[in-house]
Predict the structure.
Amino acid sequence: MRSNVALSTTADFFTIVTGSSRSVLVLEIDAEGDGTASAYNEAGIYRVTTTGATGGGAITPAPVDTPNAALVAQMTVSTTWTTQPVVGALVHNVPVNANGQRYFWRANPNMSNAIMVQGIGPAAGGVLSVLRSISGTSNISARLQVAEF
């Protein structure tokens, strides 16, 4: 979860970097505008072609189910980079109005449309740029639910 942060056309809201042996599935995306006036924003989730340098602003993933509470995530989730990752193909777009509109997406029960990130670490294919602005730079809050396996 990250709250009331401006979208950027050059920086990721979140960047997921998988561990070397566990892949990640994005199962839910929940975003909401935090502005006081109406403004259209659209952010994208992208595959990354070149990993950024020196990730920071780490968010610690938290398990949502009790049996797995003791597990430690292999993936890292960064919010800052000294050099931003280079984005490639757009995987999913997230349109959200700055004035409180909520966008919610959930993978199908059989996970046929879940967004997969390969468990190969920071190599190309093991990194996902989440919520980089396509249009607009308003403040939003967002939450992702992922499965690491």
Notes: DSSP finds no helices and twelve strands in the chain.
